[in-house]
Design a protein that fits this description.
The protein has a six-stranded mixed beta sheet with strand order 2-5-1-6-3-4. It is an alpha/beta fold. Helices cover about 30% and strands about 25% of the residues. The protein is built from five helices and six strands, in the order αββαβααβαββ.
């Protein structure tokens, strides 16, 4: 039994297994999961858990080098975009050309964590870094 940290065993295992440049996806409940990519489904009901709640908790337990989003988030979901900028002020940002390019990039992820989020473009790819 851990003293604290990430309590979800599937997410904890994925985080422990990440190497430099590996990626994970955290998405809203409508984001398609590519065939062959592990899905960790946290969605309970619309809005629960929220995208930002899950992103913030994963960020506490992951060394993150890059934050990748679809360009549509900035205009179509400005509240989530602002929250992401606040949570990740120093990480390198990648703005995919559009949501289709973002979805293509999810095919390389180690997992997709599905939240209960129901706002548009609330999806992120987190790129792993090393702590040394």
């Amino acid at each position: 039994m851990q003293k604290g940290g990430m309590l979800n065993s599937a997410i904890a295992k994925v985080l422990a297994d990440l190497g430099h440049t590996d990626t994970i996806v955290i998405g809203d409940c409508g984001l398609p999961v590519p065939q062959g990519v592990q899905k960790i489904d946290l969605a309970l009901k619309p809005g629960t858990p929220s995208f930002m709640e899950v992103v913030a908790e994963v960020a506490k337990n992951m060394v993150i080098e890059k934050v990748e989003i679809a360009s549509e988030m900035e205009e179509r979901n400005p509240a989530v975009f602002a929250a992401m900028k606040e949570l990740f002020p120093t990480e390198q940002w990648i703005m995919d050309v559009d949501h289709e390019a973002f979805k293509e990039a999810t095919k390389k992820a180690k997992c997709v964590i599905r939240t209960g989020e129901i706002t548009p473009y609330a999806n992120v790819i987190l790129h792993s870094n090393v702590f040394f």
